Amino acid sequence: MFKRALIAAAISLAAISAQASDVLLTENFDDVTTLASSGWSFLNLSFPAGTTDWAQGDQTVFTSQAGAPESYISANYNNAAAGGFIFNSLISPTFSTAAAGTITFWARAAADPGYSDALNFGFLGSSFGSFSSQLVTLTGEWTEYTVSYAAQGAGSVGRLVLSYVGAADSSNYIGIDTVTVTAVPEPSTWLLMGLGLAGVAAVRRRTAVKA
Fold first, then answer.
1. Fold held by 23-184
2. Residues 6-44: tens digit of each pLDDT
3. Nearest partner of 198 among 190, 147, 92, judged by Cα
């Protein structure tokens, strides 16, 4: 009987462990030339058009949040022509939104005085009507940002949209690194874990009494 309780506890713990680490998407930007083949999209609506786009990080400006010094994706003020407006988007591959989830990424700007770099980011569901975003002014240090989304139902998908925005003349240089999308376990799974832990505790108590 107690062996069965222990096995049941182990199974429930294994289930929660598997779900808690259900990473749907991860990108470290080691080589940005491979992003398109991995499902990432680029949409530069800056006007007038500039001379640059999303590019590999430049370690002489600043180093990555993690990994090799240049392993991040960057963009700069030349995304739009002088006097123009930057609106350059980086869009992730689709990921399942059947269950609720959390998106995290790191971003920063160059620490040069006199400039201000802004990033608009958000979750895009199966239709553009489900897009929600927030605008932040980036600092000169790597900062982690989080986007949470609710369960959308079986078969649904979503994307992360990251848009570098602002006046070209007052913008400078930004970097984005370590994007991770993780599914959040359902409450029923947490209940299984609790029952499993209770089972383990019961077995330990009974064993201690026998001893």
1. Jelly Rolls (2.60.120)
2. 444 444 444 444 445 599 999 999 999 999 999 999 999
3. 190
CB 168 within 8 A of CB 85: yes
Helix (H) or strand (E) holding 206: helix 187-210
Q: Is residue 133 a contact partner of residue 127, using CB atoms and an 8 Å limit?
A: no
Q: Residue 127 has what DSSP assignment?
A: S
Contact between 31 and 70 (Cβ < 8 Å) = no
- Name which of 72, 38, 37 is nearest 55 in CA terms: 72
Give Dmax over CA atoms of the chain in angstroms.
Answer: 81
Q: Which helix (H) or strand (E) holds 189?
A: helix 187-210
- As a whole number of angstroms, the distance between CA 95 and CA 125 comes to 10
How much is the pTM? Answer: 0.80
How far, in Å, CA of 185 to CA of 183, rounded? 6
Tell me whether residue 197 is exposed, middle or buried, using C-beta atoms within 10 angstroms of its C-beta: 0 to 12, 13 to 18, 19 or more.
Answer: middle
Distance (Å) of CA 124 to CA 17, 26, 145, 174 = 28, 17, 16, 22
Residue 165's closest CA among 102, 113, 112, 122?
122
Radius of gyration of the chain (CA): 22
